[in-house]
Amino acid sequence: MNDCVFFLGQPKVETLEPVNDQSCVIGQDTQISWKFSGIDKPRVKWLFNNKPLPTSDRFKIADTEDGTSTLSIRQAERADQGIYTAMATNSAGEAEARTTLSIIIKPVITDNLDDSLEIVKAKTMTLRITAIGTPKPGIVWMKGNNKIKPIDRIHETAQNHDDDYIYTLEIVNLQPEDEGEYSATISNIGGSLQSNKCKITVSSNILTNATE
């Protein structure tokens, strides 16, 4: 009698469209799924940043008969950002699939524009907005309904300090035609918001002495 030895193939990733990078807006639910195959059905465990998945009722794992393992994350938090690894093992070996999850934070303005400013002609106008958000929000400065384009007298800067992003608009040698309402739109892939409108008035730089 001959002994028959069957080769049990090691696990294989079968997902048709692998999602190696995924994002989720903070506070929303998200899922990460990977499908594995193997003659000996693989067992799947999940890791977070190469460590066991945190114990939390916000995390739930569901495995289906077709070899799909799905990790559900409820009300995603900033700390959930990182690398999630689905590791499939059977008697023949192992296979793994990784997804990097990015947590998106919608922009929030923490220091807004003043409602109005009066600036002396030929002086420098400086408008500043501070915002937070992940990824870094972009900004579009507006005068009325028109986008502002940097030219010789107009300068835009963006700096970051810890989690804050500081956006500055400067117009040097301010002229009467620079009067108007200024505002900005702050946005990233999580959403956008409008700043306050700041009314700029240009005053004369000629001082007159009172007569007796």
CATH-defined fold name of the largest domain: Immunoglobulin-like
CATH superfamily of the largest domain: Immunoglobulins
* CATH architecture classification name of the largest domain: Sandwich
Strand content: over 45%
Give the radius of gyration: 28 Å
How many structurally independent domains? 2
Question: What is the top-level CATH class of the largest domain?
Answer: Mainly Beta
The whole-number mean of residue pLDDT values reads 90
Category from helices, strands and their pairing:
mainly beta
* H and E string: EEEEEEEEEEEEEEEEEE
Largest beta-sheet details: 8 strands, mixed
Query: What is the number of strand segments?
Result: 18
Indicate the low-confidence ranges by residue numbers.
1-8, 207-212
Between the first and last Cα atoms, what is the distance in angstroms?
129 Å
Helix content: under 10%
Domain Ig-like: 11-102, 107-201
Protein name: Ig-like domain-containing protein
InterPro entries: Cell_Adh-Cytoskel_Orgn, Ig-like_dom, Ig-like_dom_sf, Ig-like_fold, Ig_I-set, Ig_sub, Ig_sub2
Keywords: Disulfide bond, Immunoglobulin domain, Signal
